[in-house]
Amino acid sequence: MMATLALSCAREPAPDHESSETGFKTIHYKVQVSSYADSKATTADNDTKYVFQATDALYVSSTDPESGNLQLFGVLTLIYGSGETTAYFEGDLVGVNEFEPASSTPVTVTLVSANDRIHTTGGGKLTGTSYPSNEYATSLADAVEKYSNFTCNTTFGNTRITLTQQSTFLVFTVSFKRAEVAVSTPVTAKVFNNSEATPIWQNVINAAALGSGRSRVDFVLAFPGGSTSLTDAELSVIWGNGANDHKEFVIGDKDLAINNYYTVSRSTIDLGNPFHIRAKEEGTTNVTFKYTKTTGGIQYICYDLGVDDWTDYDGNALALSKDYVVYFKGTRADCDCVGATQLFTANQVCYVGGNITSLLADPTQLAANAFRSAFSNGTCEDKVTTPAEVNWVDIDSTDPLILPSFTSAECYREMFRNCSSLTTVPDLPATTVSPRCYWNMFRLCTGLTTASGVLPATTLAEDCYRELFRQCTNLTSAPMLPAPTLAVRSYRQMFAGCTSLLSVTCLATDISAENCTYQWMSGAKNNSACKFYKASTMGVSVSGGWTRGDTGILSNWQVSDYPTTP
Prior knowledge:
4 domains, ten-stranded antiparallel β-sheet, mainly beta, single chain, Immunoglobulin-like, 2 helices
């Protein structure tokens, strides 16, 4: 918060006191304070500026640098600007023992309020700042109003000062299954720090509704004294009377900087992170899951729709509001998406996340074709026809889709082919791959702009990464390719048609396998801004090395050795 001070310093005896009797001198003071966007905590929705309240006041003080005794103090009241980001304060300061401040006199300015709960007072003076260990705020805005500590150390003669938010805020959201904790159930919450047996804070909070299948408690704690470190911190919640009606959540180590807030979200729901679909957009997203046929069923949970336990899915559409989540688990050996049946359809974009093997009877076994064409509109055996566009599938990088670290033949072939709405690729963690396992996996995913990371497999199989990113026209960066020896057609047409590609790192030293890089860069961007990083032992345009052109390194690309050390 920036503040501009307009000063008026008429010196006269304090009201009701004779200067010769009390030794006090009254100094009239006017202050204009304006707040700016550098205050991250706020009392106004969707506004990063501090909005002044009618009860706000400024406490101004100065101490003698030698004795430490108070030599100037007083409270200025808000006279104009309530509800605004600029306000005017005015009032009388008291000079102790006839003290008259010079322009260079150090002063401290603190914003206070009738709603202020951290500043203690006595004799018209601020005596300390402390957060009550048995209180909490119901929202960040509530916390800022009650527990802010805006201060400034400046000099009396300054006309422009900066008030800094010294508090940091910890925002807690804990969600429960409705069967555990119903709405209005009292929940005792405790926060421990540094493995101490005594909590640094505790209170009882009533659970509130969260969707139609869950409940939650929300509370905000403030740390007013500047930056704070939490070590081995823990949150404990207790409800009901049973021995199992409690849960401990690790907060861990956190460095809390001033003028910031930190969100701690925890849940008693522990499903092992199964595959799930989350509605991304406003309005109603109708999701129809297709994996319900033949030898096995599918079950789902959707707390937001009131489905609190695993329930057989009947094939009907699920109407999801934004951020509603539906979890799935299955009992089949594979999802059998070869053909025209993908895992699900939707009328709006959805995020897919969690461990996809929750759909299998045995998550340690991956059958051939297990998730082939899972999110695309079918596979194309003629290798010419393009499946219809899919515009309802995406991945949130904070809740990624998890694929196993093993593969089987064609298990992910064409998995996302022509999913134009996909903006994030899942990690492909397999270190040993199977034939055709990732063939065409992201072909025509025009929403992809980056695929940074590493394809860690060092032992390749035929066609394993064939046409992996073909026609991803907005892709600018490729994953690192560390495999030293390529396999038959392993990188064939891998980046063909990638008209925005700027960088490729390939550490192969043996590219002699049949068609292993055939047209792998055909139709890709080709100018001097593009960079190719190679193994230092590989030459260019020499026997056994890289050639120039569609099947090697494009003619206008710059070439550098990949460094062996950062």
